[in-house]
Specification:
- This protein has 1024 residues and is mainly beta.
- It has five domains: 129 residues, no CATH class; 190 residues, no CATH class; 191 residues, Jelly Rolls (Sandwich); 122 residues, no CATH class; 282 residues, Beta-galactosidase, Chain A, domain 5 (Distorted Sandwich), CATH 2.70.98.
- The protein contains six helices and 77 strands.
- Strands 50, 51, 52, 53, 57, 58, 60, 62, 63 and 67 form a ten-stranded antiparallel beta sheet that branches. The chain has a nine-stranded mixed beta sheet with strand order 35-36-38-41-40-45-46-47-48, with no helix packed on it. Strands 15, 16, 18, 23, 24, 25, 27 and 28 form an eight-stranded antiparallel beta sheet that branches.
């Protein structure tokens, strides 16, 4: 299909720009201007200092034995705060008085934070006249014990707000006495304010023995397992086993192993029981003994179990089907159809029945064994009412642990909580007295707000509205230090979930104020229409994008809260009433799928560090990065396709697969250990929806051996996912060059039957990959790609053997530029290598791709630099797997199934030649132009798919239009569906200017010409 589009551009700010009409191409002279005016741009009430960062000074992931301090840094344009997890009472704080903007502060790394001075931070509890002060968090103990670093939770951390929670505070008195608590310290930072909150409850010091159960008493197993001798009532051919469990928070991330185990271990005939790992519950049964073919496991997803919460577990076997229930709901089942042989071993709590292996800490109650398979309704009733059991028919064994010593829990009285932060100018202090009895499980909070810039809250009122919903009043929440609008499971007249998602959630915002300022605002939405690809943008009341940034932070892992969006913004006010529309985009933005780059919280999943999730549309992830490496030890994790399915009858609008994993730089230290990220800061310049842009800046290595600067982007499109990564490594110390510069791969269960690589002229070589290559076998040793770029690598027909019910495809990489200066020598062609990873289950080989140091280079030394620009794409193997609307792409894949030609088409087709009149070309793909005139003409040679084009330095927020010049006529593109919904605007506070981004449909156009014009109406036009 040939597209001849003319794009109308509107910049954000005052008034409304040239109208966007529905239904195809509109000649310039036929476009009617809207009634609303386009005013002259004016300065919005933002400061150059309105940004913040949250990061770890010495890195998050460390090798065992690394003794560097775990220091959390909160850095904004106004102040800095650093917290040592091992010495919370020895914080550093200071005001930042330079004028660095968001980009400048990113590039400054941690230099500003080194100027902070010691300050007084005290979090105290007073009982009976004795004062206990918080001196550390559980994170410091995790490091000392060599455990996984999980004790500090990253909830939100992007452009405006840092929300970190330090768990497991240790309170000590001056004489060294420790007060046992279940407590956390939350730090919420806006650019010019800081909110500190302590949440505390008296806590149990867990030890093996009697403990409070779900009803009455239970049993606690911490350091020693509990064994119940065999008895016939524990064994039946058809049976149900159920129990209640609770994993104490302090042991939650250590908890791994058997919760209940009958008959030795999983390789033993008759074995059955529950185990846990990573919050995942497994029910296991063995019929036949010995090998794995006789072990049957039903399991939940990860993060199913929540710390410090009672969960009901049940497993059943009816002679045919083996089933696992959690909290009364069927989670998994397996068809077996074999007769179960009864065992005679012990029933063990917290350990394998044979006594081997470690302890899985657990509190347990109400173990029951039945000689029948209970119904779903019976198990649901048991899970809902642990004190009532209506039908005891078939119950052969029951243990409620009511015997033994009495259980006493601490009760506090006449307690005072307080928080203080003190610097040279301010003494911020708050306290809370608790006179009444205070028992375990009742949390109390104390909060102090520290304002670096004074602001009057009482003169501002905010109201929100949403179609079909009556929303609660907006409140000023001290803990978030913002006006908070909460939308809980809203009604919609359209269907959310995994479908096309062509509609938006529009939240109307009305602000009444007595002054011009920027007001901190948070929209907290529970149950968004689709969490995996949403993108909030701030519009004026007519739905025209304003360019005012909205922070995109979200989570779908924390079961206590469910899937939620937290969208933060600084909302400009006027003297009087101002209206906005916060628009939440899901699958499509206008007629084309949207792009988003979100900060995704992993709290509840099992990794509490920074994780960034990119998506095109809202049908699952397309690309993820574990930037704190809190889950894995590589930068790139989940990689998936756009609009792909498993054949013509496969599911649409669903998750897909295109090979897990990849990495940026990976080099080893002198001990053979990988250099991890160190002091990485992240700048979220744009979350979408037309072109995202996020920058990462910091170091690799404990001694900061390598300086890193990276930009990651993805785009709005309808053919296949593209992720752009621009990287520069600058070596400050000598390191061995024995790893990789960039990696694609590390995917278990992936099959790579062939590989191909080439350059701008075409194919260099294609290889059929033999089966059975063992891990780390080097199939293609170091090879320098010849010729002129762009260079490219492809895995045609690669697929996953793990999932048969969704689309699975292959990955490819385009290397658009490459330059290395090593030892005074310049290298302009990349060097690649293909080692093998784990073979797929069928024995088919599985290759990784590496970009390595140039051939012959064994070391990098101070002064060496490497920089490159790569584009990661994911592709369907055959046309039947693609269900998107791009007919040009479909025809290509039909003619070239599983072919390297599809990768080559992208490489050379988007090797654009761009000429600009009225501005300066900064980047050719995506196209980025710095304008110097209000009329800009762009000539483009080439183009595949929807090509992003961004104009920077625009003086106005609205009133621009982008036209395609066709046969000397200017024609406007209209991709809108709901009005004003196909372009992106970003406000640049440093220059008081705007950026506007469009996605140009260039398929089939060998050459095209585009013209950006400013065409205001109303007062602005009269002044011109």
């Amino acid at each position: 299909m040939k597209f001849n589009y003319k794009v109308c551009v509107v910049v954000v700010g005052c008034g409304v720009g040239v109208g966007y009409l529905l239904g195809g191409f509109i000649p310039r002279d036929e476009v009617k201007s809207p009634e609303e005016t386009t005013e002259e741009a004016k300065t919005l009430p933002f400061s150059n200092k309105d940004y913040s960062f949250g990061y770890w000074q010495n890195g998050y992931r460390k090798h065992k034995g690394d003794t560097s301090k775990d220091i959390l840094c909160i850095e904004t344009g106004y102040f800095g705060l650093s917290l040592d997890m091992a010495q919370l009472d020895k914080a550093k704080f200071g005001r930042i008085n330079d004028d660095l903007d968001y980009a400048g502060a990113l590039a400054a790394n941690g230099s500003r934070m080194r100027k902070l001075e010691n300050t007084e931070l005290s979090i105290e509890l007073e009982r009976g006249g004795k004062v206990y002060r918080a001196v550390s968090g559980v994170a410091s103990k995790e490091r000392l014990q060599g455990d996984r670093f999980q004790g500090t939770r990253l909830w939100e951390s992007a452009r405006y707000v840092q929300n970190f929670e330090i768990q497991g505070l240790e309170f000590k008195a001056a004489d060294g006495e420790t007060l046992v608590t279940d407590s956390a310290f939350r730090v919420v930072a806006w650019p010019n304010s800081l909110s500190l909150t302590a949440k505390v409850t008296p806590a149990i010091s867990y030890k093996t023995g009697p403990e409070l159960g779900v009803n009455g008493k239970g049993i606690c197993v911490i350091e020693k397992a509990h064994f119940i001798p065999h008895r016939p009532e524990l064994e039946h051919e058809q049976f149900t086993l159920e129990s209640w469990i609770k994993i104490p928070n302090e042991f939650f991330h250590k908890g791994s192993g058997w919760l209940l185990c009958k008959n030795r271990n999983e390789a033993t005939e008759g074995n059955y029981g529950f185990s846990i790992g990573g919050g995942q519950i497994r029910a296991t049964m063995n019929i036949g003994g010995g090998g794995a073919q006789n072990r049957f496991t039903a399991k939940t997803g990860h993060h199913t179990v929540v710390a410090d919460k009672w969960h009901h577990l049940a497993m059943s076997y009816d002679g045919k089907t083996f089933s696992l229930f959690v909290d009364g709901h069927l989670i998994d089942s397996k068809e077996i159809g074999k007769k179960r042989i009864l065992g005679k071993g012990v029933l063990s709590i917290g350990k394998r029945g044979d006594g081997h292996g470690g302890i899985a800490p657990v509190v347990m109650d109400q173990i029951r064994v039945w000689n029948r398979s209970l119904s779903k309704n019976e198990l649901l009733q048991h899970a809902r009412t642990p004190t009532v059991m209506k039908n005891r028919n078939g119950l052969t064994y029951e243990e409620n642990f009511e015997s033994g010593a009495a259980v006493k829990h601490p009760v506090w009285e006449n307690t005072k909580m307080s928080i203080r932060l003190k610097d040279a100018k301010n003494n911020w202090y708050a306290e809370k007295k608790v006179v009444e009895k205070w028992g375990v499980g009742t949390h109390k909070k104390v909060n102090v707000n520290c304002a670096l810039v004074s602001s009057k809250k009482e003169d501002t009122k905010i109201a929100v509205a949403m179609k079909l919903n009556k929303l609660p009043p907006v409140i000023y929440d001290k803990e978030f230090n913002a006006y908070v609008a909460r939308v809980d499971r809203p009604k919609r007249d359209w269907k959310g979930g995994y479908n096309e998602n062509r509609n938006y959630d529009d939240i109307d915002i009305t602000i009444d104020s007595q002054e011009e300022k920027a007001v901190p605002f948070l929209l907290e939405m529970f149950n968004p229409a689709s969490i995996t690809g949403l993108c909030p943008i701030l519009c004026d009341e007519n739905g025209v994008p304003t360019g005012i940034p909205v922070q995109l932070s979200k989570n779908w892992h924390y079961r206590e809260m469910g899937a939620y969006l937290r969208a933060y913004a600084l909302l400009p006010t006027i003297k009087g009433q101002k209206k906005y529309k916060l628009r939440i985009i899901y699958g499509f933005y206008g007629k084309v799928p949207s792009a988003s780059h979100a900060q995704l919280s992993l709290v509840g999943y099992g990794g509490n560090g920074r994780w960034d999730q990119l998506s095109i549309g809202a049908w699952g992830e397309t690309y993820c990065m574990d930037m704190d490496m809190s889950c894995v030890d590589v930068a790139v994790t989940d990689v998936r396709m756009l609009m792909a399915r498993n054949g013509l009858e496969g599911r649409k609008w669903s998750w897909t697969d295109a090979g897990w994993g990849g990495d940026w730089l990976s080099l080893n230290d002198t001990n053979g250990k990988k250099h991890f990220f160190n002091g990485i800061k992240t700048s979220y310049l744009s979350h979408g929806p037309c072109l995202t842009e996020v920058k990462y800046d910091g170091y690799y290595g404990t001694q900061r051996e390598v300086d890193l600067a990276t930009t990651v982007r993805t785009l709005r499109t309808d053919d296949y996912a593209r992720t752009f990564t621009t990287i520069k490594y600058a070596f400050d110390k000598s390191v061995k060059a024995d790893g990789w510069l960039f990696k694609m791969g590390r995917t278990r269960g992936y099959m790579t039957p062939k590989i191909a690589y080439g350059n701008g002229a075409g194919l260099i070589k294609e290889h059929q990959v033999p089966n059975g290559l063992k891990k780390d076998t080097v199939f293609i040793p170091k090879t320098t790609l010849t010729g002129e770029g762009p260079w490219w690598v492809s895995f045609p027909n690669a697929s996953s053997d793990r999932r048969k019910d969704w689309g699975t495809g292959y990955r490819a990489l385009v290397i658009r530029s490459y330059k290395a200066n090593i030892g005074g020598k310049e290298y302009t062609n990349p060097t690649i290598e293909f080692p093998a990873y784990h073979s797929a289950d069928e024995g088919e080989s599985n290759l990784d791709f590496l970009m390595t140091a140039p051939e012959g280079v064994t070391d990098f030394n101070p002064g060496d630099t490497i920089e490159f620009d790569v584009e990661w794409i994911t592709l369907p193997r055959v046309a039947a797997d693609y269900y998107g609307p791009n007919e040009t792409f479909r025809k290509h894949v039909t003619a070239n199934p599983s072919s390297w030609k599809t990768t080559y088409r992208e490489a050379v087709g988007n090797n654009l030649k761009v000429n600009v009149d009225g501005g300066t070309l900064l980047h050719n793909y995506p196209i980025i132009i710095q304008t110097d005139k209000e009329e800009v003409t762009v000539e483009i040679e080439g183009g595949v798919g929807f090509v992003p084009i961004r104009f920077e330095g625009l003086k106005h927020a609205k009133g621009y239009a982008l036209y395609q010049v066709v046969d000397d006529k200017e024609v406007k593109l209209d991709q809108s569906v709901h009005g004003n919904d196909f372009w992106q605007t970003d406000y640049d506070v440093k220059t008081n200017s705007f950026k506007m981004t469009f996605n140009l449909p260039l398929d089939g156009l060998k050459k095209s010409k585009w013209r950006l014009l400013f065409a205001p109406v109303g007062p602005a036009a009269e002044k011109k």
